[in-house]
Amino acid sequence: LAVCAQHLDSDRYEGFLQRLIEWKDDSLADHIGLWRLLAVTGNKSRAARLVEQLSARPASAQEAVNLAEILAELGLLERGVSLSKQCIAEFGYAPNLWIIYAEQLIEAKQFEELRRFASEIRQNERAKADLLAYSYYMDGRAELAMARQVNAAAAFEKLVNSQFSFPNLSLSVAKGLLRGGYPDVACEVQAK
Question: What CA–CA distance (Å, rounded) separates 55 from 75?
């Protein structure tokens, strides 16, 4: 499968995957690989149809993240949001899963749920230790979307006074702040 993917050969990949299915030796990761390959080779609609046909559930938080990413790539955002929420309930705290869920909520413009989820992060001791700064960003994004600039500025002030546990997350937040019209806050986030 890896060789087929490297050579962008979706037909052969799909043939090998079909054998694995017949032998009952396929995994969700194998299917995600096919969907990604189809998307890269310009066949997103076929990939989306195949996603809809498969009922396999993620076996881990990382598998849920991978599935949520491909769902978003294929334009199946609502399904991704639903999946991520279910997997958070199933797998508990997993930073990457919680982050992708928040990103999906922003993209889906579900800002009340984003605010609720930011609050949930601050109430969960494990999540709070890693994602406190990010929770303030989530609050700020939600407040901006609801045209509450004063509340957004207050949330971003808390963000600036917090530390990020994951450097790549601070970069992502800085980019979001720039898009949201807060370049000074973005610079302060990156300066840490």
Answer: 18
Give the DSSP per-residue string, 3-72.
HHHHTT-HHHHHHHHHHHHHTT---HHHHHHHHHHHHHTT-HHHHHHHHHH-----SSHHHHHHHHHHHH
Task: Write the burial class of residue 35 (CB in 10 Å: 0-12 exposed, 13-18 middle, 19+ buried).
Answer: buried
Say which amino acid occupies 114: L
Q: What is d(CA 160, CA 132) in angstroms, rounded to the nearest whole number? A: 11
pLDDT digits (tens, 9 = 90+) for 83-135: 999 999 999 999 999 999 999 999 999 999 999 999 999 999 999 999 999 99
